[in-house]
Amino acid sequence: MEDNRQRESIESLGEFGLIDYLTRQVKPAHSTTLKGIGDDAAVLNFSGQDIVVTTDLLTEGIHFNLMYVPLKHLGYKAVVVNLSDVYAMNATPAQITVSIAISKRFNLEAVEQLYEGIHMACAHYGVDLIGGDTTSSLTGLTISITAIGSATREELVYRSGARPNDLLCVTGDLGGAYMGLQLLERENQVFKVNPKATPQLDGYDYILQRQLRPEARKDIPELFRKLGIKPTSMIDISDGLSSEILHLCKNSGVGCHLYEEKIPYDEQTKAMALEFNMNPLVAALNGGEDYELLFTLPLADFDKIKNDPDITVIGHMTAKEEGAMLVATGGSLIPLVAQGWNHMGRG
Amino acid sequence: MEDNRQRESIESLGEFGLIDYLTRQVKPAHSTTLKGIGDDAAVLNFSGQDIVVTTDLLTEGIHFNLMYVPLKHLGYKAVVVNLSDVYAMNATPAQITVSIAISKRFNLEAVEQLYEGIHMACAHYGVDLIGGDTTSSLTGLTISITAIGSATREELVYRSGARPNDLLCVTGDLGGAYMGLQLLERENQVFKVNPKATPQLDGYDYILQRQLRPEARKDIPELFRKLGIKPTSMIDISDGLSSEILHLCKNSGVGCHLYEEKIPYDEQTKAMALEFNMNPLVAALNGGEDYELLFTLPLADFDKIKNDPDITVIGHMTAKEEGAMLVATGGSLIPLVAQGWNHMGRG
Predict the structure, then answer these.
(1) pLDDT of B14 strictly over 80
(2) Do B249 and B306 lie in a common domain?
(3) Between chains, do A22 and B115 touch, taking CB under 8 Å as contact?
């Protein structure tokens, strides 16, 4: 099965390309399928409310490093990652299934810690764990979670509804999870050289929490209802702002202008970036794992959100021909490219 | 994380015990959850039809050996395994999600072969592939599938409804998948010693198909409707007849008498068992992977099924106090023990 030419082409397809490629012949045919592959979650109808289903598979050494990720946090995060996709549909999660494969390296206590985090997330987000599997693997830990939620037909928000002149908005702040990861990796390197060294993590609790124990934006669909608005398109930020904006543009058939100077950062993100001598813009655009919501709104809704501290307008959509562009602080236009977390990168 | 005492206790819990243990605090709380952990599939209600959700995680070296399992067959089988759980609820599958993690060893052609089998199964069973993930792993192949189906409230069949005197019935024949696996493993050993040897597989097409490319019993829920019957309990046979009978007994609070002489075998299963100098009973009781349906019926329904070539009455349920017993051909009673495929066995 070794074939360098083939392997090269799997690499060049990347994570999103590969699944597109593999599922190119799939045509939803069942009468209950309203939306199959191509959004944050699939939408089904079993009369009455629409249900949404989303799934994620996390593997050790690729998505997480148990050298510095506590298993309890990992369990919590694995759930959050899935629920974030449900909120990105403007839906409410209701159930999850969890399957894990573990090698002999993991004892019962370790698996319990993992499930403790899973149970905590279920309690916090009000979802039921309704099934799953525990099985063996020859090496490492694998976690697969499927989340199911519901919404009325009118509430659902897809990636495909953005129109030129819509406002491009984001919740919270960006780049924190990536800078938290950089900090953890630096301290892990120090630890490898000197196991007696004390990790230098003081003052960075926020970015560490963003990386190790993120939350999904449960509050945002509720906020939308309160404000009486409905996004024209929405996606969660798991792979970096660039990649997510490109998804919205591609699915909606529009372009966009993203303003560098509008991107929201936490102070710790900026301070850590300074320490690493890097621009926090890189963390926001390509870092990923922020689990904030990125969405578009009709211009007419500006007054409804302009004073909300949790929402920042970071740009606007344009005609498709104008492309997806970063408007740099100096005013120059730079095409956005997807360089986010690519777990098919096989790096 | 190494701790022999802890590892010992994870081993002693086994596959079913571990998930019971880990989820012991789970109490379905959401109003849409009718049935959480504890059956072949979870049951949700989003008004109108009830939906069922089931999930499986398959890992290389544990659930399959790519030395003799073609990837296309593996993809097909991975879907079938999940759909079998939906049919075991007397429900009709409608959608699946598929997530895979692959190491660098797999090229695009390999992944395509896997998906070809997945697509074939979707077409054959009339289900939509509605989502999933492709990601990297450090070693080996992992496949995670979630299946969703629906049924009316009245149609659903759980593991828990069997009553004393109910007939214990099984579809098709048993032990074939296990004997197919023995044959494949034997030829694989021969191949390791002499790569030029021609595999001796002639005349065993049926048991090879049972192992490599099994089908789920899509026809059985349809047959029940046609015959105007509804099982009092049902489960699919993935882990061996002993283990599945014990599930029905435990969940229904009954005992049973299983008659050795009634267990249906295909001629190839018997012939292969003879070649291996073993009793096909062992393959049926402990072999697993037959994906037939095991169910109980009120005695009054006997006339409706007695002439159906696809259904065999293999015993009857008893009071709980009588235990779950194999009635051996000589008439002696032997307690059934679960010795099926235990993927937490870590052997």
Answers:
(1) no
(2) yes
(3) yes
The secondary structure element, H or E, covering residue B179 is helix B176-193
CATH of the domain at A286: 3.90.650.10
Across the interface, of A22, A101, A150, the residue whose CB is closest to B111 is A22
pLDDT value of residue A37: 54
Give the strand pairing for B293-297 and B167-171: antiparallel
**Chain A: residue nearest B5 by CA?**
A107
Residues A133 and A204 in one domain: no
Q: With 70 as the cut, is the pLDDT of residue B208 above it?
A: yes
Q: Is A134 on the interface with B (CB under 8 A)?
A: yes
What are the tens digits of pLDDT across the range B139-157?
Answer: 899 999 999 988 888 898 9
Taking CB atoms and an 8 Å limit, are B95 and A53 in contact across chains? yes
CB contact under 8 A, B94 and A37: no
Widest CA span in chain B = 61
Answer yes or no: do B131 and A346 touch at CB < 8 A: no
Question: Which one of A115, A130, A343 has the shortest CB-CB distance to B135?
Answer: A343
Q: Are residues B103 and B180 in the same domain?
A: no
Residue B347 has pLDDT above 80, yes or no: no
* Nearest-CA distance B26 → chain A (Å): 7
**Residue A87 confidence (pLDDT) above 90:** yes
What's the pLDDT band for A28 if we cut at 50, 70, 90?
A: low
Overall number of domains in chain A = 2
* 3-state SS, residue B235: strand
* Whole-complex ipTM: 0.85
DSSP H helices, chain A, are 4-22, 71-87, 108-125, 176-193, 205-212, 219-227, 241-252, 267-275, 280-282, 302-305
Q: Are residues A255 and A302 in the same domain?
A: yes
- Domain extent at residue A70: 31-151
Specify if B35 maps to a domain: no
Half-sphere exposure of B170 (CA within 13 A, CB side): 27
When CB atoms are compared, the residue of B1, B36, B111 closest to A105 is B1
* B187 lies in the same domain as B323: yes
Q: Which residue of chain A has the CA closest to B346?
A: A136
CB of B65 within 8 Å of a chain A CB? The answer is no
